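User: Predict the full complex structure for these chains.
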Amino acid sequence: MEKKSLWKFGTREVVYAAIGAALYAVLAVATNFLQIPSAGNVSFRPAVAIPMFFGVVFGPIVGFVAGFIGNIISDLISGYGFWFWWDLGNGLMGLIPGLIALSIISYRSSRSILKAELFVIIGVLVGMALASVSEMWVSGADIHTVIFGNFLPAVIPNLINGLILVPILMVAYDAIVKRSGR
Amino acid sequence: MLVTWRYRPRNTLMSRFDPRARWIFSLAFLFATTIFWDARFLLFFFVLGFVWYFSGGAPWVDVRRGWMLVGVLLFVMIVVNTIITGGGAGGVVPPGGNLVWPGGLQLPFRLGLWHPGLTYERLWFAICQVLRIGGISAVFLVIPFTMDPRLYGVTFRGLGLPDRFAYSMELAFRYVPTLAREFETTVDAQRARGYEVERLQGGIIRQILNVAPLIVPITMNSILMGEDVANAMDLRCFGQRRRTWLYQLKFHWQDYALVTLGVLMLVGGIVVSAVFHIGGFWVPGFWLRMAGR
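Assistant: Here is the predicted structure of the two-chain assembly.
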């Protein structure tokens, strides 16, 4: 029996990465109506759970591609242009939870869900930190602007969305796995 | 839910360039611009960026959303942080400087004197930030409206990305309209079961939980669909040998010229900055004379 590799990117992974990216983009645009109460132009993006979930289930490369390409496509559809560092940050939000992909046996066990939640937190912090810090280099912002203008407004909604929706998706996926014997 | 790409074929100067050359030029432009804080260099890149932007012919009605986002970012970064709070400057502006309001500002309603830390140097830095961010935004904002989405896969393959990653990107573009239709079907099905999409009640956590009945079904259906697609691709020997692409890209003389320009810009910027130590933050004399210096 072939030993599974965490970094494998075969046919199955190619397809799931593409579906994850397309799903992230479509759901990001479709659920854009959620707004933080009385916080002006900042909108929640529940779709951010998609690259995290795809990473947990299919591995870090799938998670990265789903986040990276998904964010690019989402910005293309919305007309926001191309923001490389934020695309990379979204990719990391999918890649880091994917590091536990091989260690999960049951997607609905508390242990697996807690592990996934922990890596979701790490992924969001690292991904958004990279994207925010890039502003210091590109636009000359100082650390306070970066933290309060970019980092916190990105991290808080992404954490809330990820921590709530990723376990729900994992439990639903566990039912599919059991039913189809994957 | 109708999902359409914002790209429209236009017979413009930019459309005559190979997408690979355009990406190389854009990335070289980004890295070259970020080398400098001298307004004279930044002005050059600002003008070049907008010449490039206008050569794309993207109409305002398409790009205004992107520019609004840039405007918001600039406002937060410059007006709020650099000007109002006196922060910002990213370690570029030396400490101290000439205060714009050395005697402080009298606040209304007897709130007393406010001593903002804004200096003429920080104000000039804010102008440099506008030039820098404006130029970079102009070059990258125009990409979605002037680059054919069907060419993304073959473009990145041509730039050295492995076949599988490039194909994954192309497949993602292909699946967007399909999943948008699936999403619409899911919304209609949930609506028939009494789920009200338009009236999500409650706080933000309750609203997120209420979105789950939309996200979960479409995600699970997509995963099941993906299994069939992967099997079909395996049956057609996907990944066994180097893949050919439906669209072929070919470099012409103008593409070589564009790439050369980009490389010269980047290399020149590195040499000017690292070897001759030119291009750092600089405040012109006429600006300091406004401070009485």
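The first strand of chain B starts at residue 105 and ends at 107.
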